[in-house]
């Protein structure tokens, strides 16, 4: 997760070298291996290097192949051999072992700004083409790598670290009210192009932006495709192709000396660990660079009832990889209200407790790369209407085959999802009464966004009507994922870890969405079959389980009547958004029984999280993650 920044003075003024170095050095914590800048008149790039792949050992940025096209990037390009073959077919001379940033530059030489159509992986980059006098910047398909920009009359800034942009003297601290209202209603930002600050905008996932000197040209270069379901005669073909593809996806992400895996006893993360171990053994036999693997499982006193560490340890021993259990601290919300030494760039539920992030300390000491199983749930989410649509389409042979295969694996008939289809339309309990009345009127024109977490927020430009897998596509396109990726980025978390998400690979997503829901997506059957022989039986047979969403509800009740509640009246700007007294009364009158309601009381704390963030909004000026967060 290297740091990148670009300054383009649109009025032609030379870039201030001291200012560019200052912004670059601000990101030194996320790129401790090397810091460099490049300036050419009114354009300047900064880069702080975090080396996480074998190729990056010889990489330097900002980088150019010809002195005319320059790039600063935080990128890992996958499908490297296929990309090199595509470029060779276009006449590009083949390079034996290029770095990721060299691949992007060579792709630009072949396809220009359409190069992003041919890139696979996690990336955010800024590119300057002196010959065409254009600035190009792009973000990967799912938004795993963050990217922000500022544009005013005389200036264009691009950076992957929001707080770094705030250090530029032209950037104001004016808040974006739509962002704040979204946070107060949902607990996260549902606007993919907005940040908490009016001046700072997000580059959206799957978007490339070109500035040609006069205007922005914005394009979405990728969206989830809509393809007909696969229909193989041999059921084993589904499993074989899926296993082969998932192996490729994991292998593409294994180009690092040490790999940490966040491993529960669930099927997703253990499958990633199993395939990583398989690739490690293959690397050893072929005398290639070998990735060291260690699995981590986190538990805390609050979640001992749901502790999976024994199963996770058993899986690690079965695979023959190192295992470490991390015991977190007891969570207490706002435990450091009066003595805060950290903050997030934007309002975030992470602010509820600093202790919730301390589990990353031992991981950071062992590796710079963290694998997770995030993405398995949305990509396998079954369609409630798959069987119904087969009947409507009169595809009776496929219907009979699907039901028969499901019965073969599950020994029962497939579910019809009648109950879940009905329940998803139920709304959560309303808590709008804490809004400042004038502010409440100002946002009412935007419609009722007070929806439960199960009602997914999807940016309109990413909404796709999918005839077979609508529920899965909606979940993959949810704004919630982009926020989660940014929460794990060092610019927000402060931990110097590059997180990789194998299930968020466009090749795997494209294939999995074509699988017949029944039987392959129900209970993730295709993954269970693919992992036979690679994972122990108890993991393969274990049904999906999860902690209830209101597990920390008692922490909310512990906040009732605390002395710091009176401090809310003195926080500048908070009363612009909420009626402070109503927010306090709502908390103090909390009566909650998780057995009779699905309402998550943590939502009541949203205005207090906003207050906590506003109280410490200038702490970014002294942001020192390695110094503060490791204490």
Describe it for me?
The protein is 34% helix and 15% strand. It starts with a strand and ends with a helix. Strand 2 (34-40) and strand 3 form a beta hairpin. Residues 418-432, 445-455 and 626-631 have low confidence and may be disordered. The protein has three domains: 3-220, 4-Layer Sandwich (Glutamine Phosphoribosylpyrophosphate, subunit 1, domain 1); 235-329 and 348-380 and 474-516 and 525-541, Rossmann fold; 417-444 and 452-465 and 549-628, no CATH class. It is an alpha+beta fold and 631 residues long. The strands form three sheets. The chain has a six-stranded antiparallel sheet. Helix 6 crosses helix 7 and helix 7 (267-285) packs parallel to helix 8 (309-319). It contains 25 helices and 17 strands.
What are its keywords?
6-stranded antiparallel sheet, globular, 3 domains, Glutamine Phosphoribosylpyrophosphate, subunit 1, domain 1, 631 residues, alpha+beta, Rossmann fold, single chain
Q: What structural class results from the helix and strand content? A: alpha+beta
Proportion of residues in extended strands: 15-25%
Q: What is the CATH fold-level name of the largest domain?
A: Glutamine Phosphoribosylpyrophosphate, subunit 1, domain 1
CATH A-level architecture of the largest domain = 4-Layer Sandwich
What is the CATH class of the largest domain?
Alpha Beta
Multimeric status of the protein: single chain
General form: globular
- The CATH homologous superfamily of the largest domain is named Aminohydrolase, N-terminal nucleophile (Ntn) domain
If helices are DSSP runs of H or I spanning 4 or more residues, what is the number of helices?
25
- What count of structural domains? 3
Q: Describe the largest sheet.
A: 6 strands, antiparallel
Rg result: 25 Å
- Catalogue the unreliable spans: 418-432, 445-455, 626-631
Number of strands: 17
Distance between termini? 22 Å
Percent in helix:
25-40%
Strand order of the largest sheet: 2-3-1-9-8-10
Average residue-wise pLDDT: 85
């Amino acid at each position: 997760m290297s740091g990148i920044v670009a300054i383009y003075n649109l009025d032609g003024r030379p870039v201030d070298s001291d200012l560019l170095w200052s912004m670059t050095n601000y990101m030194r914590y996320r790129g401790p291996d090397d810091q460099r800048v490049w300036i050419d008149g009114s354009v300047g790039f900064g880069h702080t290097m975090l080396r996480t792949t074998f190729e990056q050992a010889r990489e330097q940025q900002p980088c150019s192949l010809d002195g005319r096209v320059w790039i600063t990037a935080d990128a890992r390009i996958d499908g490297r051999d296929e990309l090199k073959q595509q470029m060779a077919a276009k006449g590009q001379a083949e390079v034996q072992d290029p770095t990721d940033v060299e691949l992007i530059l060579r792709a630009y030489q072949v396809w220009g700004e359409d190069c992003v159509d041919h890139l696979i992986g996690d990336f955010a980059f800024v590119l300057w083409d002196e010959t065409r006098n254009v600035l190009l910047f792009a973000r990967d398909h799912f938004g795993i790598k963050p990217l922000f920009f500022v544009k005013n009359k005389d200036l264009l800034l691009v950076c992957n670290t929001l707080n770094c942009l705030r250090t530029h003297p032209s950037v104001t601290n004016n808040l974006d009210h739509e962002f704040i209202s979204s946070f107060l209603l949902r607990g996260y930002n549902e606007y993919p192009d907005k940040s908490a600050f009016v001046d700072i905008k997000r580059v959206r996932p799957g978007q490339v932006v070109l500035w040609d000197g006069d205007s922005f040209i914005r394009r979405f270069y990728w969206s989830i495709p809509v393809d007909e379901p696969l229909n193989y005669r041999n059921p084993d073909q589904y499993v074989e192709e899926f296993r082969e593809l998932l192996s490729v996806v994991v292998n593409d992400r294994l180009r690092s000396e040490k790999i940490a895996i966040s491993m529960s006893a669930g099927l997703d993360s253990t499958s990633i660990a199993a395939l990583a171990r398989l690739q490690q053994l293959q690397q050893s036999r072929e005398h290639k660079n070998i990735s060291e693997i260690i699995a981590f499982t986190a538990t805390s006193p609050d979640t001992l009832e749901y502790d999976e560490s024994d199963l996770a340890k058993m899986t690690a021993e079965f695979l023959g990889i190192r295992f470490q259990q991390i015991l977190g601290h007891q969570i207490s919300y706002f435990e450091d209200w009066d003595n805060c030494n950290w903050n997030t760039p934007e309002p975030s539920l992470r602010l509820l407790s600093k202790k919730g992030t301390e589990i990353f300390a031992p991981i950071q000491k062992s590796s710079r790369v963290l694998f997770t199983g995030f993405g398995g749930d949305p990509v396998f989410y079954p369609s409630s209407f798959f069987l119904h649509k087969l009947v409507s389409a009169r595809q009776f042979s496929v219907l009979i085959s699907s039901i028969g295969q499901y019965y073969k694996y599950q020994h029962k008939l497939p579910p019809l999802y009648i109950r879940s289809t009905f329940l998803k339309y139920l709304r959560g309990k309303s808590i709008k009464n804490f809004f400042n009345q004038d502010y409440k009127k100002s946002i009412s024109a935007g419609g009722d966004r007070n929806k439960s977490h199960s009602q997914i927020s999807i940016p309109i430009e990413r909404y796709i009507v999918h005839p077979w897998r609508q529920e899965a596509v909606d979940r993959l396109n949810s704004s919630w994922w982009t926020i989660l990726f940014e929460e794990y980025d060092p610019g927000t978390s402060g931990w110097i870890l590059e997180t990789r998400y194998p299930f968020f690979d466009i090749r795997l997503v494209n294939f999995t969405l074509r699988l017949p829901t029944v039987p392959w997506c129900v209970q993730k059957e295709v993954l269970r079959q693919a992992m036979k022989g690679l994972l122990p039986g108890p993991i393969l047979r274990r049904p999906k389980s999860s902690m209830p969403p209101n597990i920390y509800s008692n922490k909310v009740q512990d906040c009732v009547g605390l002395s710091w509640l009176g401090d809310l009246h003195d926080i500048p700007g908070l009363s612009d958004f909420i009626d402070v007294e109503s927010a306090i009364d709502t908390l103090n009158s909390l009566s909650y029984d998780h057995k009779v309601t699905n309402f998550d009381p943590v939502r009541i704390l949203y205005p207090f999280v906003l207050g906590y963030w506003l109280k410490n909004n200038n702490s970014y000026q002294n942001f020192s993650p390695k110094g503060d967060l490791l204490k």
